[in-house]
Amino acid sequence: MTRLSVQAPKSVVMIRPHHFTPNPMTAKDNSFQSNDEKRAAEAISRAAFDEVTEMAEGLAAAGVTVHVFEDETATRPDSVFPNNWFSTHSGGHVAIYPMFSASRQSERRPDIIEMLKNDYRVQDVIDYSGLEKDGFYLEGTGAMVLDHIGRVAYAVRSNRTNEVALERFCTHFNFEPMVFDAVDRHGKSIYHTNVLMCIGTEFALLGMQMIPDEKRRREIVARLEETGRKVIDLSIEQIENFAGNAIELDGKDGRVVVLSARAHAALDRQQIEAIEQSATLLPFDVSTIELAGGSVRCMLAGIHLSRREIPATQLLYAAERAV
């Protein structure tokens, strides 16, 4: 398999929560959320902390550089999902995004942006968060699934994806917007694009059945196939088990596709073989964090920036700072 790919970052940012809980303020439009009535809040919080720790260590062992930041507050229940409030792009560009839920807007952290400036070559930071005042939202690489090779931003219409904000992002970052509707088995709009779609270097995962417009569905598949990718169709049940919420990263032995243990178990043998033609599957148990309606992809903010110096270790813990 090819070693280098603009699609697969070598580094990621993770947030380790100290007081994790599913966020009641985001449950209304996130049908993937659920509750655990059998465990006490403290047990859920500890399990989430451990899941992030084990995943960070596993990624580092695979050769991915992992920057782990702590969140010791009890006021940011979704902070474990940093990919929603910032993204990074080749050429030294960083974007900061407007968040739909007021409970999530404080997740934006200057210390993470400063780390990127210090450790990577950052040319500019474009901050769209002021659009929140106008009611325009675009929740990062949750709202968009980006094809860094074909320069297409795929985006499902939802409360969390405003087309004005999307157009601004695409103009600044040189992507073509491709907006479409997608619904769950009950006809409810999908809240984030990255729960039904994952784009790797040589493959793409897509919940085709969840796109009701047949013409638009064919257009999306055609655009993905134009770049030489094999499009792997995921069933609604597989999407409900977070099989679409995966990300391709670059490790020490080649590309890896990181996904949850639950998602991996939902894939059939033919799908696994198709993915493993170009990358190695790397599953982690994040079943507690999945209670919040997101999975592995949501937990990882990929760093598509040039590193200033090679790190001495792949696992880098940052001290908590006042934010």
TrEMBL record:
Pfam families membership: DDAH_eukar
Gene3D superfamilies assigned to the protein according to its UniProt record, in alphabetical order: L-arginine/glycine Amidinotransferase, Chain A
Top-level taxon of the source organism: Bacteria
InterPro entries found in the cross-reference section: Amdntrnsf_FN0238 (IPR014541)
Chain ranges passing through the membrane: none
Matches recorded under SUPFAM superfamilies: Pentein (SSF55909)
UniProt-recorded name of the protein: Amidinotransferase
Organism: Rhizobium setariae
